[in-house]
């Protein structure tokens, strides 16, 4: 984990759809959880199982795989950058349907800051 100040700094520089070349560093339970990715920042990246191929976990990127990933969202509680694979071979087969159902604003989010203005405190 990084300090709160570092986490805020990193979030402030991220944009939805921003592409990072990353290295898969851990695949803890193929087919069940997702993959951890080093994208060269002080904060780790993670690709959730729902964005990876569902038919065969053998189609997931293996540890050591270097490929491009896009910023999908951030998980503030875990100080983690959630990513999606840029390479279609590592992306779930029904990504277009997934986006239409669960993230219909995705195309218009691309390029926007992942963190909007903080709510004002009373």
Summarize the structure.
Helices cover about 20% and strands about 25% of the residues.
Describe this structure in words.
A hairpin with a 6-residue loop joins β2 and β3 (45-48). The chain has a five-stranded mixed beta barrel. 18% of the residues are buried. The two termini are 29 Å apart. The radius of gyration is 15 Å and the shape is globular. Mean pLDDT is 90; it is low at 117-122. It has helices spanning 4-13, 95-102, 106-109, and strands at 19-26, 34-38, 45-48, 66-75, 80-85. It is an alpha+beta fold. The protein has one domain (4-104): Nucleic acid-binding proteins (OB fold (Dihydrolipoamide Acetyltransferase, E2P), Beta Barrel), CATH 2.40.50. This is S1 motif domain-containing protein. InterPro entries: NA-bd_OB-fold, S1_domain. Residues 17-86 form the S1 motif domain.
Query: Order of strands in the sheet with the most strands?
Result: 1-2-3-5-4
Order of helices and strands: HEEEEEHH
Q: Sum up the overall morphology in one term.
A: globular
State the helicity in percent bands. Answer: 10-25%
Give the name of the CATH architecture. Beta Barrel
What's the tally of helices?
3
Q: State mean pLDDT (0 to 100 scale).
A: 90
CATH topology: OB fold (Dihydrolipoamide Acetyltransferase, E2P)
> How many discrete domains?
1
Query: How much of the polypeptide forms β-strand, as a percent range?
Result: 25-35%
Gyration radius from CA atoms, angstroms: 15 Å
The CATH homologous superfamily is termed: Nucleic acid-binding proteins
Number of strands: 5
The span between the termini is 29 Å
Unreliable sequence segments: 117-122
CATH top level is: Mainly Beta
